[in-house]
Amino acid sequence: MSQISMVSTPRLLVYGPPPDQQPPQGVVEVQYVSSNQELSDQLTGQPAHLILCLHAPPQFNGVEAVKAVRRFDASVPVVLATQMQNARVNIQAIQSQVTWSVGLPSDVPAEEALSEVVVDAAEWLDGQTE
Question: Which region ranges are annotated with the description Disordered (predicted)?
Fold first, then answer.
């Protein structure tokens, strides 16, 4: 993937629970949403440069969130983060046109593992803007 040209601050939109303690904001703006409706509203208001969706049913159905994003914008990179590694989820991720899929460790709570992926994604996004 080529580098991203951005006029504004790079924006990472995360479908999942925010961490208990917000990491210091760097060059990348990180915003959390907890529903598909909120995700759609955020995409309507301001474009995101990368979207990270947690798949931890029943509270966070990342596959459905990816589908909602794709109905709105087919070009934005979308990462699906999940502890569920099975054929059904993998097929659903492919069908929903996820850009990347990240396996979360099963011995760590999904919310905690997600925060590590958010940091990595923000660093990657920051590197794409240089």
Answer: 1-20
